Amino acid sequence: MLSIQAHKTHHTLLDNASMGRREYWLWLLASGGTLIDGLSIFALGVAMPLITSRFALSPLMVGLIGSALVLGAVFGAILGGPAADRFGRKPAFLIDMAIITAGALVSAAAGAPQWVLLGQFLVGIGVGIVFPSARPTCPKRRPNMPAAAWWWRRSLCNRSACCLAPLSISPFCGYGRAQPTGDP
């Protein structure tokens, strides 16, 4: 257990540490987990009408698929914290990205609604692991910068998902292409 003086010394060292390109790159990668969280929830919401019409889903299955992402995130957070403590944050983060990729591939290649359900649950597990593995690597306060200014930069990835999500699906929705007017 650290004494109060050792704790203050530790904080002073952290507050006076410099941040170079490597630290900013690590911060950006770790903050990207919140971006993936926002994008995955938005993408599922946009894709749900298409999934519903393709598989003729019942209201129960629509609800299950819609909640699988969030339920998976709960299990991912519960499992991800102890895994990150035991094996390290970097291995947990890398496994997390592999789980998200596998879940996205299962969802994209799904031939039945059960596979979409499984894929979204896997994506949710990966998103849940982001919070205990990657988020703690983002410092709450940047050295020599007020906490509020650093917090704003840190949460920028989460907020930018609101802007990036519509742009990421616009090529698939016909935006920017000439639309027929109905005139001969």
What does this structure look like?
With 184 residues, the chain is an all-alpha fold. The chain has one domain: Growth Hormone, Chain: A (Up-down Bundle), CATH 1.20.1250. Helices cover 78% and strands 0% of the residues. The protein contains 7 helices and no strands. The longest helix has 35 residues, at 21-55.
Mean pLDDT, all residues: 77
Give Rg in angstroms.
20 Å
Low-confidence spans: none
CATH superfamily: MFS general substrate transporter like domains
- Helix and strand run: HHHHHHH
Structural class: mainly alpha
Shape: elongated
Please summarize the sheet with the most strands.
none
The helix content, as a percent range, equals over 70%
> Under the CATH scheme, which architecture would be assigned?
Up-down Bundle
Continuous helix count? 7
What oligomeric arrangement do these chains adopt?
single chain
Number of domains: 1
CATH class label: Mainly Alpha
Q: What is the terminal-to-terminal distance?
A: 80 Å
The name CATH uses for the topology is: Growth Hormone, Chain: A
